[in-house]
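Section 3.1 - Work completed
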Amino acid sequence: MAITLTAKRLITADTILQRPLVTIEGEQVITVSSGEISESPGPTHDFGEATLTAGLLDIHTHGAVGHDVMEGTAEALGTVSRFLASRGVTEYLATTVTASLDYTLRALNGIARHIEKGPGDREAAILGIHIEGPFLSHAKRGMHPEQFLIPPSPAVLDRLWNASSGHIKLMTIAPEIPGALETIARANELGIRSSIGHSNANTAETRKGLAAGAVSATHTYNAMRALDHRDPGILGIVLDRDDIYCDLICDGVHVAAEMVRLWFKAKGPELAILITDSLEATGMPDGTYKLGETTIHVEDGRCVTDTGVLAGSVLSLDEAVSKMRQFTGVELETAIRLASRNPARMLNMPDDLSTGSAANLNVYDAAGRRTQTVLRGRIV
């Protein structure tokens, strides 16, 4: 039986509907319109003065609540997926980290099996895989183990692709490394989007990577060559270009509020993307955890390796939306689109609630706090 959801307003990809009527049957949206409840074709659920939004899409998360996606097991991936759904993330890319090739291939195979099985009850859906590594710069590797970095090549990418059963959607790569341009070109052939990151690329090398087909930059500012006024390098180029997406960890630890505002001024509401880069420590108390084969220590929201290198975060994407509003003063509709519409568009995937789309929504109260999630048609 179809049911219609209504509220004060609905934030869509490009507009705001007042008194929306979102009709759902099973797990899918049937129609989206606006009007009075009396116009609904069947039972309704009225959220009153709340705002409905699209579900959140995290394209860069390594894990949560004590599990790393590199484990590749149904238990680990199911636990992570349920946690993300509880934080308003309805879809995500399971993100790998640089590890031994055998370990990585096993992880990709395990994640692929989970994707093909489909999400379980109350689980965010894994849309695909983001490989962060092994094609990274030694100079800007961050916490990625140096011994497991591999020179990029179409042949190695094909091995990763085959192990993932074709589920890789995004690849972070340093364009200055020999073989990177050919690997980006191969990624394009496979339908993988390429993002420049963990890179020491200068201006010319960055331009070559973008010309080869890269469409985005990974965790802007972090693990990148610093901005120089004569050789702007990767940071200057990607912030200046009006056709390149840039994602950012908006937790107040990785990037200062002033630099968040500068990033947003440069990229605007169409090309800025919020991510978490969250680790298995997300949703857990301070302590010692793992990211792939690397030990991570967490204290007061800061994640570091044994050598003190900043690793990922313990941020959830709904928190990133809130911090984006706090740091920049943008309205809810803008912050939401940075965590839903923009990552979907970067991936060249459907970006809005429409006929046939998954019925994934979040509910925000009048104060802008997320209060509920509708996951594939069910309120959770």
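Second construct:
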Amino acid sequence: MNRVFAAIIAVVLALPLVTIAFAQTKEITGEKKTVKATVEAIETSSRSVTLKKPDGTYVTVAVPATVKRFDSIKIGDTVTATYYENIVLRLKEKGEKDVDTASAAVTAAGGGNAGRTAATQRTITATITAIDPKVPSITFKGPNNWTYSSRVEDTKALAKVKVGDKVDITWTEAMLVSLDEGK
């Protein structure tokens, strides 16, 4: 029987951002990854579950009150999380307004399936603050003192931008999380 844990979404998997490189608009498709973890401990007073990941490490996650069947979770159950991410970069035209938006949604699976998909999307405008063609790498600065540096594999795309250019960066992450009881 499958049930969803929306709270586990960002905790079960911690994938780094994929390599950034771009032209006018560049889409970077992240890998789809599925991870299974075993329920090792349950703390009912705090609604937390400790999971053992495949690498043998443990993570404790809070299960929100919106998960109605928390009392059905048993030690030994398996949590399966399938994670996907995508990044789109778009070189902004001069004078275009900066953006900083975020949205999230949880969608039920169709056909009577108890699974849920949770997705988040964030778009920000960032300024290119450094380019190192020798590495090759690029550094961005965005709202709230956000900074990010990354190696760039597409050197032709890197050659099309310069320090001071503004870029809209949109991250989309989605995860389907289910609980397989007694597995």
